[in-house]
Amino acid sequence: MSKRSITCPEYQERLNTAATLVDTVKTQIRQGAIKKKNFVWLELTGCSGNIISLLDGSNPDFKYLISQMTYFIFNNSLSASEGQNAMEQLFGVLGSDFIFAVEGAVATKNNGLYNIIGRLNGKAVTALDAVQILGAEASYVIAIGACATHGGVSAARPNPAECVGVQSVLNRKVIKLTGCPCHPDWFMGTLAHILLYGEPELDSRDRPLLFYSTLIHDRCPRRSYFDQGIFAEKLGDKTCMFKLGCRGPVTRTDCPIRQWNEYVNWPVEDDTPCIGCAQFGFPDAMEPFISYNTTRNSTREVNDDQENRD
Amino acid sequence: MTKKIVINPVTRISGFMEIQADIENNQVVDAKTAGLMFRGFEKMLNGRNPFDAVYFTQRICGICSTAHSMASTLALEDALGVVPSEQGRYLRDIIHGCEFLQNHIRHFYQYTIPDFVKLPEDYPLFKADHYDFRLPREKNDRLVKDYFDSLDLSRSAHEMLAVLGGKAPHNHGVFIGGITTQATTDKIIKIKSILHAIDKFINDRMLPDVNTIAEYYSEYFSMGRGYGNLLSFGCFNGYQDLGTLYVDPLVYTGGKTRVFNPDDITEEIDYAWYQDTQKDTKNGDKPFEADPRADMNKAQAYSWVKAPRYNNLPFETGPLARLWLSGEYRNGISTMDRTIARVLEVRKIASIMNILIDNLIPGVSVQKEYTIPETAMGKGLIDTTRGALGHWLRVNDQVISFYQIITPSAWNLSTRSNSEVKGTAEEALIGTPIRDINNPIEIGRTIRSFDPCISCATHIYTGGKHINTIQVVQ
Fold this sequence. Notes:
heterodimer, A: 5-stranded parallel beta sheet, two-stranded antiparallel ribbon, 9 strands, 30% helix, 13% strand, B: alpha+beta, 4-stranded antiparallel beta sheet, 3-stranded antiparallel beta sheet, 12 helices, globular
């Protein structure tokens, strides 16, 4: 799975979390102990990068998700049907036990007309309508990626479409999987947990502790350089990226352990600073992403006790 | 009698799009393509640190994020007067190549195949709304298998990308000077081995698969032509020692190929929801001049995709344009040729990547400390997966003061121009025979042959101006 030779048991346990959960789902579905649930994944104002990231996932992969874990009903990027038929499929889940995943922010300007997701019986359906209708009835709502969790890049100043996170338009619990994009394991592991045991344990901002409990900085392989005060002066250097604006010290994810795309790499190992894409407040509160030999102004940092735009 | 068809959402594309088509005697006589989502990246970029544009603009699109890191990096290099080393160019062009592989494999199998191949009905996601599936069972089964097997290959194309670019989507590697990290022997051999597997899949599976579809849906060679104007900003070209491995900046119109001149690009907005406050827009604005504002009260506007033009003409950009301009494929210009070109291009890109990888020198750092000038301007023009992409930027007081983006899908899916000339895809739909007006699959097939990326192409949307039709109206 990984080229690292670290022996700390916590590392291996963390890497195995999603895979273990999913294997258990497979067994229990086969034994009839749990049932597959209906599942819809809606893309809203964003870049559709989270569904692409999901397709990048392995163990489990997309085929496993649609064949073994869920009845995957609708997704803008993957549905075979289009137009009216696609919209009927999407809203056909109402009245059933379904899980509702959303990527992208909700555009609120002009009553949501800045993002039309389709037409149902000739009438334009806004993203705002769809989230409120499906979100009210879903058994679980999962916000996937920075735009869905808090507005993300879609809500970057001056926020021309008046985008907000999904939570802002729903009066219910929304599980928040931050990240730009969200790592496929963070989603798959959370979904598997829901299918097996219900809602995973969440932190005070509704992120699953399974994946969001530690700071990048605390698990960074370059931490010893930080402790010794050895800092990179340009991208490409092999030392601590703090003075180039690294957001590892404020960002809660397991990127250093898990890594990306078949677990081969992550931004710091690519000799660039973490830009805090998995932290609330991204992007505006995490900028500048790149600055040379500048220690950041700490007043711009967002920590977990502060309220963000949500 | 004219019948109006409205398709919304057009699925299996990136972003939100509506197509309106007027049908007479089972033929499309008029068509409008509309982008239906607002984000406003150009306004968001004002006031930001210029370096951040590389990572920020990638967030325009999740399937072609690397494209924006390439164009913004080129624009910054132009503004800062940085000339990257050849090793730097090789490295970032390899990353760009990984995105071509990922995008084209996904587009062909996950976005295109469901139009032509009957996917398993026990998956609700694959519930089709038409009956025009023609492949014999054995061939259909083979393509279904390849639909699922392709998921591993496009995934490993992103794995290759991450080896040099940190992660995907939204890589961290492409930057001024080339890429951020160094090629090492282990990384080079890892990339080569993954590329070998992808290349084998392309040759053994993907090419036969597209040929099968072309054989059973052969009338699509005579549909979806459009104007036949083709354009490329060039890519994998002009290396010091390697020369041009793919295509130089060229345009093709009226049967003649000419050298591309960036000064001949304009954008027109008469049929999009914008108002230009700068000057008379009769002939459109050049990229550095245009700074339009939203205008929701234009009676004739129907989309927030603007209308880029070259010498006042609409052009097609993308794989078919590139293969045509480089002289590698000149069978024809049609829905099926466009689909075949995308597959042929994957094979071409894989061969180019092998050359670039073989010319890498391990352990070369291409990064420096860069300084942002008080004022500067630059442009970055490059062909990416879907076609010609341009970023134009100005820097003032060391921050971005102006940003302009013209995307491939804006070229292909544009609105009418000021002189009422339809956009490229709109024109391509004209004359399309519609067999069953209740299941107008032909429209989606042609539109998807352009691989629309409406996330990239749209800047704003407002309601209230659409004709309030149902999907099919007598």
